[in-house]
Amino acid sequence: MADPFEVRMRFTSQLQHLNASVNSSQKAAHYALKYRDMDEDLHSCILEQLERNSMNNRANIMYFIEHLCDMAQRENHTNFVRMIQKDILMVVDAVAPSDGSGAANVKVVRRVLQGLQQKGILLPDTVTEIEGCLKERDTVAEHAVLSPSDANGQRDNAQTQMTSTKVNGVSRPDKRQIEQRIEEDRERHKRLRESIWAVGDEGDQEFERLWDDVSDIGEDDYIAAEEDAIERRQALGMA
Fold it and tell me: Is the pLDDT of residue 170 over 90?
């Protein structure tokens, strides 16, 4: 039997080093399911890392949670799913805190919540309730990202130095964290575009969906087609 302390330390390390790649999240999820007999301890690791890590890493853990729940559901190990359902409010509060420090993570939370709802892991009412809380966290006051000035318009050096880490009590990411977040968001958007254009083996299902989306032909459509035909004939005559 594996040493519980070693399993916990390795899982914690994987959570701390998550990135925007799918492989990163899947690797950590596979590890958690490999040691599913320690699921409660590993779940506590997730909650601890959400409290201790940077906002960038919390966003990565949020995406990992979706992968973990999806894989746990497929492997019929519902304990991980049940614990996430129970603590989802705590997870959201850690990834996008109410103080505005996680405003950049609100979109991440929404995407993951929608994914969990579509997979039947979260109830629509739960997602709607959380969405109501997120509306207040979606933006941060514009002046929060600006350094303060004194009454004469001259920057106070001590105050400016303090705002390199906090502004109005809200922690600000440093330049390295901002660049890392931009790169990770770019990677996620790339994967999202790829998934949108991916064509599965669905036979005529895609055609039928598109056909259903098209409105029935009406009288206006015939009139428009006739006008287009007249314009084309006139253009050919002029040529």
Answer: no
